[in-house]
């Protein structure tokens, strides 16, 4: 008994108690058919909960837990398919038990240390992937089990099906919003912000005059800017790109100016002893020192640009675009299409941000913040 108590992880104890509680609330769904899937769900959860008692290695425990918790989750989702809204309290109790073991799985994976860089990289991807997958599993089981109306919150499987069926429409929206408005506006906004920051660093009057205005413009509401840009540049993508320019210009300006002032006095004195001019010091000392600040602005702007372009499309656009699609489909109660657009926007934003983060690590590999991990 003592060995059981010392080896059983704390997540296993409430998971086993929840299994016992679920036994008193059977069946899992009203009008349940064969008892085979229910027995198998109980067996998988109990097996995953007590397996650590055998003293396995971390990788073996993680592999066993992975099979048990995801097998149980798959069975629970399969049982409720076609029986939406008929889940009993015992069904949700077993979902909670499986989630506790998934928590244990993520904990075990996070504790694994390997001498192989490839395995470490795989673990860094696997942990957030399992974490995100269980958010979707909980979303799916709760919405289907409780019979939440489709117009309020569709299950993720319905959103995935809508993405697969509406791929041509989504691709056209991505092309209009991201590849035209966001990319072009982002390049212009960040490029001009960087150039003006260098000029502001060179000329004191420009820095003292422009920076307070920059802080004020950064506080302007996009809801007020977007319709003005539509009046100036028309309904097509140039007005949305203009909104993105306004939103990305000043974050780049402020961060770059701060970064150019980040180099130390000793380094600048050393450059002066070498008779280096302003532009030589800028290229060989101050810009490399400002690189972390510049990449920070690029990452902040990657999300601001996407938000700005989508919101701007609410105020007038041709019959294509992510913001246009969201505003029209929500009026038609096609909520799955709205969620499909949101999912595609989130995925595109994450990829954009991830590419910038990888580029930052490649360019600023020498910086202590990157070398430290």
Automatic annotation (TrEMBL):
<feature type="transmembrane region" description="Helical">
    <location>
        <begin position="62"/>
        <end position="82"/>
    </location>
</feature>
<feature type="transmembrane region" description="Helical">
    <location>
        <begin position="241"/>
        <end position="262"/>
    </location>
</feature>
<feature type="transmembrane region" description="Helical">
    <location>
        <begin position="36"/>
        <end position="55"/>
    </location>
</feature>
<keyword id="KW-0812">Transmembrane</keyword>
<feature type="transmembrane region" description="Helical">
    <location>
        <begin position="121"/>
        <end position="139"/>
    </location>
</feature>
<keyword id="KW-0472">Membrane</keyword>
<feature type="transmembrane region" description="Helical">
    <location>
        <begin position="212"/>
        <end position="235"/>
    </location>
</feature>
<keyword id="KW-0813">Transport</keyword>
<dbReference type="InterPro" id="IPR000515">
    <property type="entry name" value="MetI-like"/>
</dbReference>
<feature type="transmembrane region" description="Helical">
    <location>
        <begin position="304"/>
        <end position="326"/>
    </location>
</feature>
<feature type="transmembrane region" description="Helical">
    <location>
        <begin position="88"/>
        <end position="109"/>
    </location>
</feature>
<feature type="transmembrane region" description="Helical">
    <location>
        <begin position="178"/>
        <end position="200"/>
    </location>
</feature>
<dbReference type="GO" id="GO:0055085">
    <property type="term" value="P:transmembrane transport"/>
</dbReference>
<feature type="transmembrane region" description="Helical">
    <location>
        <begin position="338"/>
        <end position="359"/>
    </location>
</feature>
<feature type="transmembrane region" description="Helical">
    <location>
        <begin position="12"/>
        <end position="30"/>
    </location>
</feature>
<protein>
    <submittedName>
        <fullName>Nitrate ABC transporter</fullName>
    </submittedName>
</protein>
<dbReference type="Pfam" id="PF00528">
    <property type="entry name" value="BPD_transp_1"/>
</dbReference>
<keyword id="KW-1133">Transmembrane helix</keyword>
<dbReference type="GO" id="GO:0005886">
    <property type="term" value="C:plasma membrane"/>
</dbReference>
<dbReference type="InterPro" id="IPR035906">
    <property type="entry name" value="MetI-like_sf"/>
</dbReference>
<keyword id="KW-1003">Cell membrane</keyword>
<feature type="domain" description="ABC transmembrane type-1">
    <location>
        <begin position="193"/>
        <end position="363"/>
    </location>
</feature>
